[in-house]
Structures are given as C-alpha cells and as structure tokens.
Amino acid sequence: MKTRRLSLIALPALLLFGCASVQETGNVSQPLNTRLTAGVGDTVLRIATEKDLPNAFGRADIFGRKTPTGMTTVQYLGLRDGKALFSRHSQFIETGATTMNSTPLVIPNSATTRTHGNIGGIPYSGTSTTHLPPSVIPAHPPQAQTMDDGSLLIAVDVKKDKQLIVGGKTITIESADPRSWCIRFRDRIAVARVGC
Questions:
Q1: Confidence check: pLDDT of 30 > 90
Q2: Which pLDDT does position 193 carry in this prediction?
Q3: Measured between alpha carbons, how far is residue 156 from residues 36, 47, 78, 93, 160 in Å?
C-alpha cells in the first residue's frame, strides 16, 4: 500500500519536473537536395524559428507544442561590380504563450440524482447520473508582439568568398549573373541546391 502511494506521488512529480528544457529550433522552408532557380527579388532562404511551449516550471511542454519566435529571410537583389547582393531581414516574435494560457479549460457536465422513500411500506432508494456535453472555456494567450530587427544589405564577392552564413546555414554561390544565380545551401545534416 505504501509503495502504491509513493507511485501516485512520484508519477505527477516526474511529469512536471522530468520534462526537457525549452529548446529553440529553425525550420528552413526551401526544399532539401533539390536544385531551384532564383532570380532578382526571389527569396533564397527563409528560416522560421520556434521554441517549445514552456510549462509552469519553465520546462518544455510534455505534448510537444511549440510557439513561434521569429523569421529570417534572405532575398537576392542582383549582381553589381562582381558582387552578389542580398538583403537579410529578421523579425522577432514574442507570444508570451505558455501551457497555462494556451490550453482550454474543459469542465465536465454531469449530475447525480439520488432518490429514496417508501412505497406501500417498502423502502426504496436509487441513483441516476446524467452526462451532458462538457463546457469548454477557450484558451486566452496574450497578443503576440512582432519586433522588426531591420534589413541588412550583404555583398558577396563571387570571385573570392562565395559563402554567406545566415542563422547557422551556409549558402555557397556557385555562379551569379545580373538576372539569376546558382547556390548550394549547406546545413549540418543535409544539402539543398537553390538556383541553376
């Protein structure tokens, strides 16, 4: 009996405190291992970042829910004086979302009726339970705040450097002309080709 009580106490504690720490990840919207063509004005790289939804103890949500944290976009602007020009634009998003304010409250609706009495001198008693659809109070996360980090003009000498690092991702320019260009996009795991 004592072991069962300890198990009942330990399981919720493990669920609350045993969660992983909150991690931030970036998702690249360009397809991997595929050659694409990009012209002037096209988006070369878009990284959407998100983090684990924090719980009451600052740990990651056990259900794996996420909340957005920002967006970084790199756009090709063309070729000038042997340099490929790019515009890097970043935005940060603060949602203030947690497991507490992002989870709806579900209130079960059930009623139990107990009756008792006598019929012809014979006592009786009974119980009936009525189940109705639950009441759901929707989640009310705070209004997300978007902060613009501005744009940065980047010039890459296509004869020398040929590489541009953005958000931990490396873009290698294979060739460029005033209208279009070829690059190789390298991640720690996979290689994608954007361009010719």
A1: no
A2: 41
A3: 20, 20, 11, 29, 8
